[in-house]
Write a structure and sequence with these properties.
Blueprint (H helix, E strand, L loop, with lengths): L5 H14 L7 E3 L5 H4 L2 E14 L7 E15 L4 H24 L9 E13 L5 E15 L2
Parallel strand pairs: 1-2
Antiparallel strand pairs: 2-3, 3-5, 4-5
């Protein structure tokens, strides 16, 4: 039987992030959350794109790559520069924690060969209540060998 590892890898990453004390009170999910339920701070791993290729890894072996789109969402009360700086700084901290968690064990409990974070797009604006918000979108890429 073939095992596709992405579900186990995502569960491991979410569980490890939730266990970090500096993320107490942060919503961490392996799916998208609507803004009303995201809270003032969230880490969302929401979409996954897979690519499988035949490789010379043995009989009927595949090399799989999955790219997960992730985002960090932070809202801070206020409408001025101080509020957006505070939101951006905390968003940086949350993304840094995701990167550190991946660097601590890039195999995610040996569910994949390697996983890493890359790229970032910062969207800074105002939420529905007029507060300052910062959304950082980035990718988590995972590679695995898939065999029978």
């Amino acid at each position: 039987m073939v095992t596709i590892p992405w579900h186990a890898a995502l569960c491991t990453l979410v569980d490890r992030l939730r266990a970090r004390p500096e993320l107490a009170g942060v919503t961490v999910t392996s799916g998208a959350v609507d803004p009303d339920n995201a809270g003032p701070e969230s880490i969302q791993l929401h979409s996954l794109e897979e690519n499988l290729e035949w490789r010379q890894l043995g009989p009927a072996a595949l090399e799989g790559t999955a790219t997960v789109t992730a985002l960090v969402w932070v809202v801070r009360a206020g409408a001025g520069e101080d509020a957006i700086r505070a939101a951006r700084q905390r968003a940086d901290e949350l993304r840094r924690i995701v990167v550190e968690t991946l660097m601590d064990d890039p195999t995610l409990g040996q569910t994949v060969q390697v996983a890493w974070a890359s790229g970032a797009t910062y969207d800074q604006g105002v939420d529905a209540n007029g507060n300052r918000a910062c959304r950082v979108t980035f990718q988590v890429t995972m590679e695995a060998w898939i065999r029978r």
